[in-house]
Each structure stands twice: as C-alpha cells, then as structure tokens.
Design goal:
The protein is α/β, with parallel strands linked by helices and about 475 residues long. Helix content is about 30%, strand content about 20%. The chain contains 13 helices and 18 strands. It has helices at about 15-30, 45-50, 55-65, 85-90, 150-165, 185-195, 210-220, 230-245, 280-295, 295-310, 330-340, 385-395, 445-455; strands at about 5-10, 35-40, 70, 95-105, 120-125, 135-140, 140-145, 170-175, 205-210, 225-230, 250-255, 260-265, 370-380, 405-410, 415, 430-435, 460-470, 470-475. It has a ten-stranded mixed β-sheet with strand order 2-1-3-12-11-4-5-10-8-9, with helices on both faces. Strands 15-14-16-13-17-18 form a six-stranded antiparallel β-sheet, sandwiched between helices. Helix 1 (about 15-30) crosses helix 9 (about 280-295), helix 7 runs parallel beside helix 8 and helix 10 (about 295-310) crosses helix 11. The longest helix is centred in the first third of the chain and has 17 residues, at about 150-165. The structure holds NADP nicotinamide-adenine-dinucleotide phosphate. NADP nicotinamide-adenine-dinucleotide phosphate binds near residues 16, 267, 272 and 278.
C-alpha cells in the first residue's frame, strides 16, 4: 500500500494573502517533495458570515488533523468580530513561540547594506497584553491585563536558546522593560538569567527594550537572537524587518507543542491587493521554514537559495528601493522556480539543525511557595471626591476594621498622603489598605466585610490582594 501523502492546511487569507500564498505553493510544487494542500477559509469573509472568531469549525478540524499550516495574512475587521483571527489561531493552538528571522539579502538595498545583518526575534506569542483581557473600569478609564507566567517565560527562553544552538548562533539577548515592570517583564529577565548558564556555548545578555530599539537602529550587527515578550516582540520584529528591506521580506514561524503555523510578518496590505504587486518573498521564506520544520531540509535550502539567486539576479518587486521595472508577484515566483537548484554567490547555504523544542508539561503547572501571607488589599474606587475627602470618608467608615488606609493613587501618582504636587485627577482611585499594627492575619471574611463597608458609600470595581510569597512582597510598591 502506498503511504498517504503528507497534508498541510493552507489558509490563503485576505488582501494580498491569496497571491503570495499561491506563489509559495507553486514553488513548493516545483521542488521534488510530495505534499498535499488542504485549502481552508479564515479571516474577513468568515467574519462577514457572522462567525465571530473568523475561523470556521472545518478550518479548526483541518489544522487539528494536519498540525502544520501555511497561512496568508488575515485582516482584523474593525467594528465586527470579537478579536483578531490571528490572535485566536495562536491562542487556540498554543503556538507559544514566534520566530522572526531577518538577514541582509543580496540585491536588496537598505541603509544597512554591507553590514551582514542576521537577526532573529523570538517572541512569546500567547501571553502578555495580546491576550486582550480588557475592561473599562469606569466610563473614562480603561484597563488591560498583562499576565506573564513562569511556564510561558521558560518555554520561550528555552526555545530561543534551542534555536540559537540549532543554527550555530553565538549570542542571545533578552529584551525587557524590567526596570519599570519589575514583576511581569522582570519574570522573563529572571527566567532568562536562570536558564542561560545551561547554554555555556552561547553568550547571553539582558538589555532594556528601549535601549534594544535604539541599538537596533544604530548598531544592529551586534545582535544575533533576541528573546522578548509578546507586544515588545511584535514591535521589535517590524523594526528588524525594516532594517533588511521591509515587511515584504520578513518570514515567521509560530511554534507550538502540537501545531505550528508559518506566515509572513506582514498583513493583508489592502492597498496593493489583487494588483499582482505584492512581494511574495516573506511568504516564500516562511514556506522554507515550514519545509525545514517538516524535516525537508534540502527542499527548504533549495527554496531559500532560489530566492537569494533571484534577488541577486536583479528580479525585483515594486516595494524594493530603486526598482525601475518591477516584476509582478507571479513573475517573481516564476523566477524563483527557474532558480531552484542554484546556489547564491553572495549568500552561501547555511547549516540548519533540528530545533529541540522545549518539553510540553502536561497538567496544571504551579510554582509552589513555602509560605504565604496577605498584607492587605488594593481596592479600586470610582469617585468624584477630592483625595483628602475620600481618605477621610474611608477612614471614618473603617474604624473597626483590622485594615487601615495606607495610601491612595490616581493615574499612578500618590495623591494621599499628599505630596503637595499638582496632579491631573480622574474619578478613578486605587486605595491601598494594609493590616493595622498588631493584626497578623487577614482572611476572606475581613476582606468581604471591608468591601461591603466601602460599597455602602462608594462604587468599587476591582480588588487586588497584596500577597507575600516566601516573605517577599508579590505586588508593586508605590513609586511616586
Ligand atoms: P500590512 O498589511 O503589513 O501593510 C502595511 C504596508 O506594508 C502596506 O500598505 C504595503 O506598503 C507594505 N507591504 C506589506 N506587505 C507587503 C508585501 N508583501 N509586498 C509589498 N508591500 C508590502 O499592515 P496594515 O496595513 O497595518 O494591516 C492591514 C491588515 O492586515 C489589518 O487588518 C491588520 O490587522 C492585518 N494584519 C494581519 C497580520 C497577520 O495576518 N499575521 C499581520 C499584520 C497585520 P505600501 O504602502 O508601500 O504599498
């Protein structure tokens, strides 16, 4: 019996998606590997049919069967649908690691030409602000939750080091905003510093994200692999694609334990859709990453080299600097097909080894603490009172509580006790209550009683417990 052909799920997507995906498929078909493509719907037309996720059930089933997806960009509709179909796909299949490599390409003129840039952004892909957990706390104040887990940090850091080892790279930078966001961004930095010694062959260094952006614009050649959180990685990887020729050249892989999705970094570019103008390089290079992931290393290298030879020979799409007679999307793809089997003179074949993916930890992952204590709570209150009046009212109503009011902040600034500085106030206060001297224990009963007391005279909308784990405060101290 002949073995069944390997299948992948193909999502042509929106805007320029179908054009660039067709280019990549034509090139894969021209290699000697035998793949079957299962084309499925996702994106704008699906939203229009009233499917709020933008991804129909049949597409989800196809991905579950095939495990590997080649995907065009999906438009995020404004005004209908719940959230981005891209974010939903990443979350649904837990593609926790987004790998976005860029390098200097022959014939692609940029401000950095001649500096041999070869940088990979490894971006955490499911947690952080992109989980999109948002609330209007008051009609005038919005909240977004930035949740970062030890498990998520460990997986992305290990993926970054494994990727660096597989490609024989020399250095991994971890870029965070841990100086301000000490707990969330700090968790990635601490995890990185704990894991880095396990990879002694790789130089490791932490860098603040704002400095990383500056250094990337000034001396990008100092970077090799950069691991970072979700939103930072999204922004930084658009920046790195700009260094090497633009979005038309930036491929990516969304790596999961079970399913992996390969797509260009760019979106649906509606302004050039349907005009045979889009640069298909990013999607073709994403397809090469997919072939490598499927264990088809030779075909992957052949496709990558054919792209390099094509660029070297001066075939250019209209997005490339200094292009007088641009090739259309389909002409570019045909040129790549005609160059299959050739090797670039300027950019020789690279050695790629299999990336060892971090192990999947089944079940509920928990980080134990030897001791826990509740030190108080922050209650968020909507009020038009001045801070001093609010403090007096809260103090008075709580005279018999084991908790006392310690401070009140407004838009992050301490407004009680007053520093005397002028603050632009809104009707949204964070009121911190801590245990009175001599009180050692705070239970749910006391918390509920405090909320009930506060709720008699004020509108409260959010509560955070001030926890201590192993004797360490597990909350941010007030800054100003
Ligand atoms: P975009 O689609 O990436 O396009 C921005 C601009 O970059 C385009 O107008 C075009 O510039 C240029 N460009 C992008 N890809 C190109 C290519 N292959 N060839 C030539 N030029 C290319 O970003 P956007 O306009 O912000 O987003 C449009 C839609 O795509 C939105 O709905 C967004 O949510 C979605 N999106 C999806 C994904 C995804 O599916 N992963 C990612 C990002 C955005 P010129 O003006 O120079 O022609």
């Amino acid at each position: 019996m002949t073995p069944a052909k390997r299948k992948i799920t193909v999502l042509p997507g929106d805007g320029i998606g179908p054009e660039v995906v067709d280019s990549a498929l034509a090139i894969i078909k021209a290699t000697d590997i035998d793949l079957e493509f299962e084309k499925c719907e996702a994106g704008a037309r699906v939203f229009q049919k009233g499917i709020a996720t933008g991804i129909p059930k049949e597409t989800i089933q196809s991905i579950e069967r095939n495990k590997v997806v080649l995907k065009g960009p999906l438009e995020t509709p404004i005004g209908y649908g719940n959230r981005s179909a891209n974010v939903t796909l990443r979350a649904l299949f837990e593609t926790y690691g987004n790998i976005r490599p860029v390098r200097e390409l022959p014939g692609v003129q940029t401000a950095f030409t001649g500096r041999a840039l070869d940088i990979v952004i490894v971006r955490e892909n499911v947690e952080d602000l992109y989980a999109g957990i948002e609330y209007m706390q008051t009609p005038g104040v919005a909240e977004s939750l930035k949740l970062i887990s030890c498990e998520g940090c460990e997986k992305i850091v290990r993926l970054a080091f494994s990727y660096a080892v597989a490609e024989g790279r020399k250095a991994v930078h971890c870029a965070t905003k841990s100086n301000i966001l000490k707990l969330t961004e700090g968790l990635l930095q601490h995890t990185f510093e704990e894991i880095a010694p396990q990879y002694p062959q790789i130089t490791s260094k932490h860098i603040l994200i704002d400095n990383a952006a500056h250094q990337l614009a000034m001396r990008p050649e100092q970077f090799d692999v950069i691991v970072t959180t979700n939103m930072n990685g999204d922004i930084l990887s658009d920046l790195t694609s700009g260094l090497t020729g633009g979005l038309g050249f930036a491929p990516s892989a969304n790596i999961g334990n079970d399913v992996s999705i390969f797509e260009a970094v760019h979106g649906s570019a509606p302004d050039i859709a349907g005009k045979n103008k889009a640069n298909p390089t990013a999607l073709i290079l994403s397809a090469a990453m997919m072939l490598r992931h499927l264990g088809e290393g030779k075909a992957a290298n052949d496709v990558e080299q054919a792209v390099l030879v094509t660029l070297e020979s001066g075939v250019r799409t209209s997005d490339m600097m200094g292009t007088e007679k641009p090739a259309g999307t389909s002409e570019f793809a045909q040129a790549v097909i005609s160059n299959l089997g050739k090797t670039s003179k300027l950019s020789p074949r690279k050695k790629y080894n299999k990336v060892d993916l971090p192990p999947y930890h089944a079940g509920v992952n928990a980080v134990p603490a030897k001791s826990r204590r509740l030190a108080g709570l922050d209650v968020y209150i909507e009020s038009t009172m001045e801070p001093v009046q609010l403090a007096a009212a809260l103090d008075e109503s709580m005279s018999s509580s084991p908790l006392r009011l310690e401070m009140i902040t407004n838009r992050g600034a301490i407004v009680f006790p007053s520093s005397g500085r002028q603050v632009s106030l809104v009707d949204h206060y964070r009121c911190r209550f801590v245990l009175r001297d001599g009180v050692t224990r705070l239970g749910d009963e006391e918390i509920l009683s405090l909320l009930s007391t506060v709720g008699h005279s004020h509108r409260w909308m959010h509560v955070e417990k001030l926890q201590e784990f192993d004797g360490q405060a597990a909350y941010s101290k007030s800054q100003i």
